[in-house]
Design goal:
Elements: H1 2-12, H2 16-21, E1 26-29, H3 36-45, E2 51-56, H4 57-64, H5 71-78, E3 82-87, H6 107-115, E4 122-125, H7 135-144, H8 150-155, H9 161-164
Parallel strand pairs: 1-2, 2-3, 3-4
Length: 186
């Protein structure tokens, strides 16, 4: 592990001072990581505010299937070292870049973890295809993020965010193992 960190440091060593001068943040993204500790050790090794971790929620969903932490656990573990988050939804089988609400990501848990941060971080929303999100799925993501208030949703005859939790894939319960297999999505 120390040897890998040394190789990464040697590669980025000339770039980090330039990033600091430009007040730019370099981010190192999780890809096939099943444990945040090594990635966070790499970030810490630079001892620079200009090197932070980037969390790809789709990658975290994939590695969660083989024992890695959930995306919200990644956020909690990274804490102040999280500098960027790549928001995407997926079924956890492939890096699908689905629109939020179309997959199995637990958006409530993710936004709760992000709400616990004491800093803001850059965000990127990426979808590989034309939006397929149903109005209800879109509302759930907005509710999870706190964009839709309980009073406003009750006026429209929709359940408050607390009532919506756990009411579909990605909202606090895992989909049936057959969901997503043989799917035409992605």
């Amino acid at each position: 592990m120390q040897e890998q960190i040394a190789l990464i440091a040697a590669t980025l060593e000339p770039i980090v001072p330039l990033a600091e001068q430009a007040r730019c943040t370099l981010v190192i993204e999780n890809i096939q990581d099943t444990n945040p500790a090594p990635l966070l050790a790499v970030v810490r090794s630079f001892n620079s505010e200009s090197v932070r971790m980037s969390l790809d929620t789709g990658h975290a969903l994939i590695t969660h299937r083989v024992g890695g932490p959930t995306p919200d656990q990644w956020v909690r573990e990274a804490g102040p070292l999280l500098g960027h988050i790549h928001l995407q939804d997926s079924d956890g089988q492939l890096d699908r870049h689905w629109t939020p609400g179309d997959g199995s990501l637990n958006w409530y848990a993710l936004f709760e973890a992000l709400g616990g941060l004491t800093h803001s971080c850059g965000t990127r929303l990426r979808s590989a295809a034309a939006p397929r999100t149903s109005p209800l799925a879109a509302w759930r993501v907005r509710a999870a993020a706190g964009v839709v208030g309980a009073a406003a949703t009750r006026r429209r005859g929709r359940p408050a965010p607390a009532q919506a939790r756990g009411s579909g894939p990605g909202w606090g319960r895992r989909p049936h193992p057959a969901q997503g297999l043989g799917s035409d999505r992605g």
